[in-house]
Structures are given as structure tokens and as C-alpha cells.
Amino acid sequence: MRTMIQPTSLAVIILLTCLTGITPLSIDMPLAGLPALALAFGEPEGRAQLVVGVFLAGFALAQLVLGPVSDRYGRRPVLLVGLTVYVAAGVACLFADSLSVLLPARFIQGIAACAGPVAARAVVADVYEGSDAQRAMSIVTAGMGVAPIAAPMLGGVLLIWFEWPAIFVALAGTGVALLLAVTLMLQETRPESRIGPLRPLSILRSYGQMLGNRTFMAFSMPSMLSGGALFSFIAAAPFVIIGELGHEPQMFGVYFASVMIGFIGGATLSARLARSRVPVTMVRLGTSVMMAGGAVMLAGALSGIHHVAVLIGPMAIIMFGTGLMRPNSITGAMKPFRDRAGTASALVGFLQMGGGVLAGLVAATRPEGGITLYSTSIAIAIFASLPLIIFTVMPPRPQP
Questions:
Q1: What's the whole-model pTM score?
Q2: I need a surface site. Which of 99, 178, 205, 318 has the fewest CB within 10 A?
């Protein structure tokens, strides 16, 4: 179905932003309900965190398939099927009566959700080039920071009036709205000249070429490691802020919003600087800010200060640096492979979420009571410092 709306229009940029935001929405909205969910199912806190971990695992793995599929069959079909499955999985989560039912449903929901950002990044690569692509990616990245601000607050509000299943009602409803918007607004953007074979060996060969490409890996690694910092915070913050420090679930949403405002600020500044700064410069600047935030957090943890500001203030700095770095990291990684934009988008997303899965699994293996302000601060600080180190040791090759 074609539409009069052009792929470069503001309406489509907003839609792409919403499609990319489905990931943080799906992760962050249930956060405030994790303690109540653990209590309702009689499960330890560590296992309840797998509600986040399994979603990320499904999200990360499915990208490796959906990216090449979008290169072969188009962005629209992948989005339409993915959003349909996302809604169905949300309904299954709603009626889950144990973690043994909820976790598989969340895994499937993660698989389906990855269609949004994979296709959205590919659409940007399809219709923009050079600094325009850098700026468009920054705008999409800045906008997706709104979802993490609104999601925990909305989750907290829903918990005031309803039980935790209401969160999955809201997620399913969001999926329905996005499905309708894609159907009515988004035309196919994949150029016909980029249609290639969909064979396992061909796909593996493409991934091998990207993993062996110095520029692709140099730009991808900072984004991956920044995901480890973010998801270390996401997985542990509810238990630290609500459980250890005794704040109300509604306040968790306020603190999380403070962190994500830093991300929006960084991505907004990145969009402003896109015309005058190349991706390499922006990645170096962003990772330097991240390391500075990590150093402040580490100092607070080692000093023994038992206050929420030790976690939230430095995390906002880290996310400001992430907002500066990430859109330029994605743009720089995908540039050598614009002829396979869906596949490149998938591998970038897989590596990025891989850092999050690693952080989530590390958090889930902590013993009962092991999720503390001290241990969480140290984990985040380490992940925040590694991007600059890696980008300095392994910089991208100069591009013509």
C-alpha cells in the first residue's frame, strides 16, 4: 500500500522514532512492577530480573534474521508481521500465572519488538546519506529517549490503580497503535537494486565481512559497551532505589526520567553538531563524557555514600555521553554497508543488545541481597569506561 507521505517527511521521522522507542518502552515500563511481580509469583529478585533479560535475549538474536529478511522482502512486511506478533505476545504476558509462562512470552515479545528498530535504522540508511543520515539518526535517537522517561512513570501510575498485568495491557495497546500507523503511513523504502539472495551462507558471509571490517567494529563496540552500562542500571535500579533505599515506585520513574533527560540532551546536541563534526569526533567526545561519569560514580561508590544521588547524577552524565556517541556510532558502522542496510542494522543492534544481555545475566547471578548501590555503581562505572578505551585502542580506518 503506497502513501502520499514521503519517507523524508517529519511524520515518518516521528514514526521511525516511535518504532525505535518500542524497545525501551517494553523494557522500562515493567521495571517498577518487578518487586510486585516477584512477590506475586513467590520468586527471588534475581529471577524476576529475567523478565528484562529474556526480552533482551530474544531481541538480540532475532535481529540477525530480521535484518537480512528486511533486505530481501522489504521494511514494511517485517514491521507488519513483527508488530502483529508483538501484540499477541503482550496478550500472553497479560494472562501469565507464573514465571514459567511469562518468560517464554517475553522472549517472543523481544523477538517481535526488534522489527521496529532494525527496520527504522534501515529506512534512515535507505533515504539519507552523509551528514543528513548522521542528523536523522541523531533525531531518531533523541526522540527515543522520551519512551524511557514516560515508561517507568506510566508503569508506576498503573501500579497505583491496577496490578502488574496492566503494564502488559498498555504494551499490547501500543503495539496495535504502531501497527495501524505503519499500515497507513509507511511506504517501502528499500531500493529495488539492493534485493539480494536470502541464503544462510550468504547471510553468514555478510556478517563475517562486517565483523572483519575495522571501521564497522570500531564504531560498533562503543555502542555495545554503552548498552552494558545502561542495562546494568535498568536491571538493578528498581531493587536499589525501591528496595535498598526505600523510595516509592512512583519516585523510581522520576529518577529514571532524570537519567534519560541526559540522553536526550546528548542526542539533541549531536543533531546540532552533525553538520560540522564527523562521526569519529562525536564518538570520541561522547565516550570521554561517559568515562567522566563513570569515574564520578566509582568515586561515590568507593566513598561509601549511601544516597540515591550517587547512582542518578553520574548515570545522567553517562547517558549524556551515550546520546552524543550512539547515533554517530551507528551511522559510522553502517556507512560501509549501505547496500545491505538491514543486515548492518541488525548486527549493530545485536552487538548493542549483546552488552545489555551480558549485564542482565551478570546481575541475575548475584546472590540474594547482592543487588546493592555499591555493587551496581561499580558495574556501571566499568561499562561506562570501556568504550573510550576500546575506541582509542582500535580506532576506525580513515574514510575517503
A1: 0.71
A2: 205
